[in-house]
From TrEMBL:
Species lineage: Eukaryota, Fungi, Dikarya, Basidiomycota, Agaricomycotina
The protein's name in its UniProt record: Citrate synthase
Region (Disordered) location: 1-26
Keyword Transferase: yes
GO MF annotation, one: acyltransferase activity, acyl groups converted into alkyl on transfer
Organism of origin: Lentinus tigrinus ALCF2SS1-6
Length: 495
């Protein structure tokens, strides 16, 4: 915690500390540094009297606030799960380099590692795998839920809603019904309740995703098979019709497993942060995962793989790449699949995806957009605009090409990101529930720049405020056709 020391620099300040002089008051504060971090609440002690004429909403006398739009440099949790060195292009799960895991591990083994902290023995893995797989079966009523969506519903809308719907089946898993300490006690019963939800969510993630897929294809639903791997079962659940002994292609099953593994976690990205933010109110994990799913869906995050393919289709062919690059530089377009908040050299996952793409193309044939993608990649990597801003391909630049070659519809791509990410979200959620000192609700501060206190004005005395952002927009009304407009009728239309 920051504490004022003296008006001059303290010679006795410990080396692992920061000395801050507040020039408004002349006071000097010493703030301890631990693990190369300082506590933001230390700034709360740095108070100053309000200047004459200063807005009271600044709350200057209540201490300094730390402003960080978009969390550029704010650590919100202490974590032992995933480490990223963005400058060196390093990604490690629980200390293990992603390249080694992609080569030697499997998605479910890595899930065990991420959630429980160490690689499982054979026996431990078998237990975990069988729990996950046996929890993959959905209640038959869920069929009605999926059938209630519009024929063209985006599968991410279905998946997001499905996770929230799933929670409604398990009242015993809901802290609002069972008591708010359901997941935070750390005793055997509490851990067992938590782990049961983990098995269910990982097990049912593929089932819900496959149901979203089948409903769009107009297919009946299938019961998850036995004896197949996690990704083998997922492929079966999407693709099996009435053939006997249906077995997914092993190359595609393995490729999907590698893609799942490298998507399993990525520390505090937008969706994981959303899961933790939502979970910090101690809501049930199904609701928290649904919130994470919603966050992942955006085109700046997990929706980027879909956006990349739409971009490549719009570019059309390698000869149109230079014009596209120029449009990006004029800020008329975004080069989807490039750039990253953390990686400033390369995204290590993108190399694994490139290698996986080669394996997949051997059995599916090359995707026709590959040449355009290569031309775009090469042009961007040589261009000063991208070099200066340290923009390199991220995982999404290549993954969409694999999903397309595997025959998945474009709007299903974010689902293929969300399903494996359930693992990472749960690892972080479990860690937060069990963290030392209990769960603290996530409640950030704001810098209030709005109106100061003012009195309510009666309608007849108000001045009209106008402006694009200050008044409700006029909108077209769907469903009212020209024919309706030309018709005459008594009473009011319902629309
Ligand atoms: N195309 C063109 N310019 C870009 C791009 C891009 N893809 N990404 C960043 N820039 C520019 C940006 O305009 C800014 O330029 P300037 O400094 O002149 O204003 C500069 O590079 C820094 O970018 P930023 O927006 O401050 O970076 P950020 O850390 O806030 O955003 C990002 C990171 C991933 C949202 C962004 O790079 C982006 O929009 N990329 C495209 C979407 C995408 O591929 N998302 C997937 C991310 S990886 C998978 C995942 O984890 O979800």
């Amino acid at each position: 915690m920051g504490r004022p020391t003296s008006s001059s620099l303290p010679e006795s300040a410990p080396q692992e500390s920061l000395t801050i002089r507040d020039n408004r008051t002349g006071k000097t504060y010493t703030v301890p540094i631990a693990d190369n971090a300082i506590s933001a609440t230390a700034f709360k002690t740095m108070t100053a009297p309000r200047k004459p004429g200063e807005r009271e909403e600044n709350e200057t006398e209540k201490g300094l606030r730390v402003q960080d739009k978009g969390f550029l440099n704010t650590a919100v949790i202490r974590s032992g799960i995933t480490y990223i060195d963005g400058d060196a292009g390093v990604l490690r799960y629980r200390g293990y380099p992603i390249e080694q895991l992609a080569l030697k591990s499997s998605h479910l083994e890595t899930a065990y590692l991420l959630i429980y902290g160490s690689l499982p023995t054979n026996e431990q893995f078998k237990f975990f795998e069988s729990e996950v797989m046996r929890h993959s079966v959905m209640h038959a009523d869920a069929e009605g839920f999926f059938r209630s969506f519009r024929y063209d519903a985006h599968p991410m809308s279905m998946l997001t809603s499905a996770f929230a719907m799933l929670g409604s089946y398990y009242s015993e898993a809901n802290p609002s019904l069972q008591g708010q300490r359901l997941y935070t006690q750390g005793n055997a019963a509490s851990l067992a309740t938590m782990d049961r939800q983990i098995y269910r969510l990982i097990g049912k993630a593929t089932t819900l995703a496959a149901m979203a897929y089948r409903v769009r294809q107009g297919r009946n639903f299938v019961t998850p098979p036995t004896g197949l791997s996690y990704t083998g079962s997922f492929l079966y659940q999407m693709d099996h019709l009435s053939e006997e002994n249906y077995t997914p292609n092993p190359v595609l099953e393995k490729a999907l497993d590698v893609l799942f593994l490298i998507h399993a976690d990525h520390e505090l990205n937008a969706s994981c942060t959303t899961v933790l933010q939502t979970g910090s109110s101690l809501v049930d994990p199904y609701s928290a995962i649904a919130a994470g799913c919603a966050s992942l869906y955006g085109p700046l995050h997990g929706g980027a793989n879909e956006a990349v393919i739409r971009m490549l289709i719009s570019i059309g062919s390698p000869q149109n790449v230079p014009a596209f690059i120029e449009a990006v530089k004029r800020r008329e377009k975004t080069l989807s699949g490039f750039g990253h908040r953390v990686y400033k050299t390369s995204d290590p996952r993108s190399f694994i995806v490139r290698k996986t793409a080669d394996e997949v193309f051997k059995v599916t044939g090359k995707d026709e957009l590959l040449e355009t993608a290569m031309a775009l990649h090469d042009a961007a990597m040589k261009d000063e605009y991208f070099i200066k801003r340290k923009l390199a391909p991220n995982v999404d630049f290549w993954s969409g090409l694999i999903y397309r070659a595997m025959g998945f519809p474009l709007d299903f791509f974010p689902v293929l990101f969300a399903v494996p990410r359930v693992v990472g979200w749960l690892a972080h959620w479990r860690q937060m529930m069990l963290q030392e000192g209990g769960v603290k609700i996530w409640r950030p501060r704001q810098v209030y720049v709005g109106a100061g206190k003012r009195d309510y004005v009666p309608v007849e005395e108000r001045e009209k405020v106008e402006g694009a952002k200050q008044t409700p927009s006029k909108v077209e009304h769907g469903g009212i056709t020209k024919r309706t407009m030309l018709a005459t009728f008594k009473g009011k239309s319902k629309l």
